[in-house]
């Protein structure tokens, strides 16, 4: 099959490559670019382990062709770290509030939570639960994930004491 020229910004860096048009974005990120934060889970868009941010939208990268992301800005969990390489607020709150266990779903959870908080910086617990409902976790029972997201929202709003 003929390859197409693909150009996009991934985690703030411009990338260019040749890829088969039928290549899924998750495979392009992991296999061509070496970005392994997003995980391949169900490959049917049910689990959300592959969630990335594409042009300001949460996208399950196992159901998007690389050609659909051509020219786009893609952010993965790796792109959510602080400029100095330290953990970003969401990553730190997931760590502090034990919002992960095995860690398989965590990159997709954090990336989805990032977009959720961009869309709604002051969500209720119910809004967090609804906003995260497309991302599944088999380990945690979600309570600590919700606590981590609520704490991150408070920190991002400047209410650090509310997050503790």
From TrEMBL:
Keywords for this protein: 2Fe-2S, Iron, Iron-sulfur, Metal-binding, Oxidoreductase
GO molecular function, a single term: oxidoreductase activity
InterPro entries hit by this protein: 2Fe-2S-bd (IPR002888), 2Fe-2S-bd_dom_sf (IPR036884), 2Fe-2S_ferredoxin-like_sf (IPR036010), 2Fe-2S_ferredoxin-type (IPR001041), Beta-grasp_dom_sf (IPR012675), Diverse_Oxidoreductases (IPR051452)
A matching Pfam family: Fer2
Residues in 2Fe-2S ferredoxin-type domain copies: 4-80
Keyword Transferase included in the entry's annotation: no
Keyword Transmembrane set for record: no
Secretion signal, residue range per the UniProt entry: none
Record's protein name: (2Fe-2S)-binding protein
Annotated source species: Thermohalobaculum xanthum
